[in-house]
Amino acid sequence: MMRTSFPIFFVLSLILSSSYAAVQDFCVADYTAPQGPAGYSCKNPANVTVDDFVYSALGVPGNTSNMIKTGITTAFSSQFPGLNGLGVSLARADLAVGGVVPMHTHHGASEIVLIIEGTITAGFISSDNKVYLKTLKKGDIMVFPQGLLHFQVNVGDTPALEFVSFSSDSPGLQILHTALFQNNLPTDLITRSTFLDTAEIKKLKALLGGTN
Q: pLDDT at position 204, please?
């Protein structure tokens, strides 16, 4: 009896927990509470205000005075508490002339970019190493499937602006060059595993703050 009743109880528990989640209107992030594997805890509804659902940072241009000539402003659940648990988020990217969003991936979300101003060449690489590349202009959108490497470059002669949406309130991020050169992974192992020249690897490590 015990062997059959436990699976039934487990299924009922899942149904009840799913139903509870479904009837909640929202789960505004409580930044003062411990964060668990599922994300932020919910703020007490009695303490939720309209300001939890409003975020104005994307109206401010990002700082492009950096190595990649790009400023990224995010509206993820870590900055915008009202997004917590809703499965959506946004970002703004300001690209100076020659600016680039380096090759990177979001393990937790697909991404859609909307070009507001300028001319941007964007692309992604599929798991079978096929390249999907397109030069985008004002009003164009492009989707980058979840987990695939992708990038954008301002190829125009004026600054560019794009807004980005994600299918998660916390999409995650890993940038290829920082993963290789901004840590203590030994240069010899990078050389052997990537076939890059040792001198170039050491140059990139020095530039990005890596060691070994």
A: 87
Q: For the chain, how many residues are written?
A: 212
Please list the helix, strand and coil fractions of the chain in percent, rounded to the nearest 5, in that order.
Answer: 30, 30, 45
Q: Name residues whose C-beta falls within 8 Å of residue 48's C-beta, 6 or more positions apart in sequence.
A: 26, 28
Copy the structure tokens of residue 17: 């927990």
Tokens of 23: 């009837």
Residue 138 corresponds to which tokens in the numbers above? 């004002």
pLDDT, averaged in runs of 10, over the chain (212 residues) = 46 40 79 86 94 97 96 96 95 98 95 97 96 97 97 97 96 87 87 86 86 84
Burial class (CB in 10 A: 0-12, 13-18, 19+), 77: buried
162: CB partners within 8 A, 6+ apart: 92, 93, 95, 113, 114, 115, 116, 118, 120, 152
Q: Decide: helix, strand or coil at residue 188.
A: helix
What is the rounded distance in angstroms from the CA atom of residue 41 to the CA atom of residue 22?
16
CA distance 107 to 90: 16
Half-sphere exposure at residue 65, Cβ-oriented, CA atoms within 13 angstroms: 1
